[in-house]
Every structure is written in C-alpha cells, then in structure tokens.
Amino acid sequence: MPAASLTERLSILADAAKYDASCASSGTEKRNSKDRKGLGSTEGMGICHSYAPDGRCISLLKILLTNHCIFDCHYCVNRKSSNVARAKFTVQEVVDLTLGFYRRNYIEGLFLSSGIVRSPSATMEQMVDVARRLRRDHGFRGYIHLKTIPEADPELVAEAGLWADRISINVELPTSEGLDRLAPDKQAGQIENTIGMIGDRITENKDAQKHFRHAPKFAPAGQSTQMIVGADGASDATIVQRASGLYNKHRLRRVYYSAFSPIPDASAVLPLSRPPLIREHRLYQSDWLIRFYGFQPTEVQGAMDDGGMLPLDIDPKLAWALRFRERFPVDINRASKDMLLRVPGLGTKAVDKIVQSRRLQRLRLEDLARLTRSIDKLRPFIIAEGWRPTGLIDRADLRSRLAPPVKQLELFG
After folding, report:
1. What does the pLDDT look like over 271-315, one tens digit per residue?
2. Are 131 and 146 in contact (CB under 8 A)?
3. 277-292 vs 316-323: helix axis angle to the nearest 10?
4. Please, are residues 131 and 163 in contact by the beta-carbon 8 Å criterion?
5. Which of 222, 228, 304, 395 has its C-alpha lying 20 to 30 A from 389's C-alpha?
6. Rounded to a whole number, what is the distance in angstroms from the first to the last CA of the chain?
7. Pairing outcome for strands 60-64 and 109-113
8. Residue 283 and residue 234 in contact, taking contact as beta carbons nearer than 8 Å
9. Is 282 helix (H, G, I), strand (E, B) or coil?
10. Neighbour tally for 304: CB within 10 Å
11. Entry pTM
C-alpha cells in the first residue's frame, strides 16, 4: 500500500483533532516580530477557526502529531480498537507545516495534540521537540498550545510549559468512576496530580518574574482542560461541582465542555445518541455565572431540577431567578452590584454602566433601554424610577412568558 502524501495525512490528522474543544488562544502575552527578530505574532487576523472570549478571531493549525494510539478509551475515535485511517507526522513536518501556513497568513499559531505511540513519554518528547524547534531554531513568536500527556515524564510536561503559551490536560470525564469504566488506561489521580504540578509551576513562575526580570516564562496563557458531556451518567450538578473544584484548587484558565458525539464502531457501553448541544451551551453559561457573575456552585445547582440537570429551555440565570422569586424585584438605583448581577438580562458591562450612571441620576426604564439590548426580560425583576412590576414576579405563567419561543424543526436541518 503506497504511503499517504502529506496532504492526505494533513486531512486525516486535522479531522481527528476536531473533537478537542480546548483550543482558544486567549490570555497569552502579546508578542510580535516587528523588531525584525524572529517570525510570527500572537496578534493579527487570518482564516478564523475559533474565537477568543474578547471576540477576537483566532486562526490555529489544529492537528494531531499522530492518531495511532496504544490506549483504548471507549469514547475516543482514535482508540487502538477503532477502525479508522491512521497517519503520522514527523516532528519536522509539523514544524514546516506551521511555518508554511503562517507565512501564507492562514494561521496565527499551532494547537498540537496526539495519540500515544510507543509510550506517553516518547510521544510527549516529540511534541515538545516541535515547540522547541519552532521557538529556538526558527524564532517563532506565534501562539503554541500543547496538549500534554499526564502519564508522561513530569520533566517533559514541565519543559512543554517553557516553549508553549498554553498547556492543557483533559480530565476527560467528570467522575473517576466514569473514567475507570470508559478509559481504563487512564487514572484520575494521575491526571489531577499532573494538573496540580503544572499549576504550582505557573504560580512559582509568576513569583519568580516579580523578583527576576529575565526569569523564563512558563505557560503564560495558563492551563485548561476539557470534560466530555453525556458519555457517562454524570449530572450537570456533578459537572459544575467538578469544574468549580478545578478552578479553585488549580487556578485553571478555562474548563471546556464537549458534548459526546457518537463515533464509528462505538463500544456497547456508550450511549446510542449524543446529548442535545444546548446542554453543552447551558454548562458554558453556568460556568460564566461562577467565573464572572459571582455565583457559587450551590447557587447554580439551585437552578437545576431534582435530577441535578439544568433546564434546556431557559438559561441558568433565569432559572435561578424564577426559583428564588422572593429575592426580586430589586431596585436598580439602590441594589448592590452583586444583586444586580443576578438579574436576568443584565450582563457584566450593563451592570457596570448602571452603577456608574446612578451616581448622577435616578435611572428609569428608558435609561435601561439605552444600557441593554432589551428590557423585556428585566421588567418583572426590577424596580426603577417610575416603574414597579406590581405582581409580575408572582405570575404563574412568568416562565412561559420569558422563555424563548419554540422553533419549528427543519425537515432537512
């Protein structure tokens, strides 16, 4: 059988990398080659593949070094028992592809992951070598994200942070029981320890930079992880609690959620269908509430049903407000910032504008209309100058009035 061409291997390994959601490039330091030293930049525009939280378009060459793997994780399309086309790049081929795509303005950086061949350490060594050659031999100053392997030698994982902007390790599943059942080759404790080790290195590096100006940077964009949603029986409450623990204990930059997707030749222990994508979206919204709106995990869980699941028809913030109606309405001219952040329909920017504006005048509904996109969702939950909801908050049909209209499904959608 003739060897696959570079183009054919690129097609296979780029497609195999699409299941990893944790490839945003926000948070890195700004670097460029305007001083005519080195190549590349972490800024600029190209062909966009993802978006940073600030709305900036990010283009990354997102590939696997190889999709061969000695592990047999049931949910992974690249597991060793899977009947998929296999391919592999050499280290130099990945380096050449990255530089070639960058020079053509196709990408701003590289996201590199891999299946595990020979051993975790052998694979990790090759991935680190890619980043090392780009940085050291070619002066590449674009963004690099390395998906590290927790079973690899800790020194290799640590070296990855010296060359990459961001490093990440997937916790894969919310519970250790689910990981034992669906990924028998992986250990939850080992993954957690490696995440902790990287977190400690990042903290130590930040401290070193305060005291030593030329201290080498270690993963300046931090570390992230990813959880698969719907492959096991974990509830949204379990997922939210797990993510919150990772944020608090290891100071992760992001936890990404990826809805389980059925794969070819799937194992009998996997669900037959994928969870609704809106469930993934609701988990991201709950994540935002905890990270930016001051909600505690227990408060988010208060918006869930008795089975620990977030409602799919309304967002978690509205669900929480409807569950705890006794806290509303709130006076936008007197309420604390924390309470304003809990009002459905008010985002962080709108709350900041309200706090600033009410120092100068008492705000009316028409003033809010200029600060937010819509006040329809706000009316039952707020008191403003000249406006009081007069029992709207107690209406039995309030949920149905505020829920988005049901859309007709497309026959060929």
Report:
1. 777 888 899 999 999 999 999 999 999 999 999 999 999 999 999
2. yes
3. 70
4. yes
5. 304
6. 39
7. parallel
8. no
9. helix
10. 21
11. 0.85
Whether 225 contacts 256, CB under 8 Å: yes
At which residue do the structure tokens 């940077």 appear? 217
Token pair recorded at residue 88: 């592999």
Query: Which residue in the block uniquely carries the two structure tokens 């070296």?
Result: 159
User: If we measure between CA atoms, which residue out of 203, 207, 213, 246 comes closest to residue 227?
Assistant: 246
pLDDT of residue 239: 96
| 364's tokens | 């009316």
Maximum Cα–Cα distance for the chain, whole Å? Answer: 79
> Distance between alpha carbon 386 and the CA centroid of its chain, in Å?
42
Helix (H, G, I), strand (E, B) or coil at 99: helix
Cis upstream peptide for 154 (omega within 30°): no
Residue for token pair 């509904």: 365
Listed in sequence order, the DSSP H helices in 104-222 are: 120-132, 154-163, 176-182, 188-211
| Contact of 237 with 205, CB cutoff 8 Å | no
The b/e string for 221-260 (b: 16+ C-beta within 10 A; e otherwise) is: bbbbbbbbbbbbebbbbbbbbbbbebbeebebbbbbbbbb
Whether the CB-CB separation of 130 and 106 falls below 8 Å is answered with no
Cβ(288)–Cβ(317) under 8 Å?
no
3-class DSSP state of 190: helix
Classify 182 as helix, strand or coil.
helix
Cα(339)–Cα(294) distance, integer angstroms:
9
Query: H/E element holding 410?
Result: none
In whole angstroms, what is the distance from residue 121 CA to residue 109 CA? Answer: 24
CA distance 72 to 45: 38
30-34, 121-125, 333-337, 375-379: which range is least confident on average?
A: 30-34
Q: At what angle do helices 236-250 and 277-292 cross, to 10 degrees?
A: 40
Report helix, strand or coil for 411. Answer: coil
CA angle centred on 164, ends 113 and 76, rounded to 5°: 15
Structure tokens given for 347? 């985002």
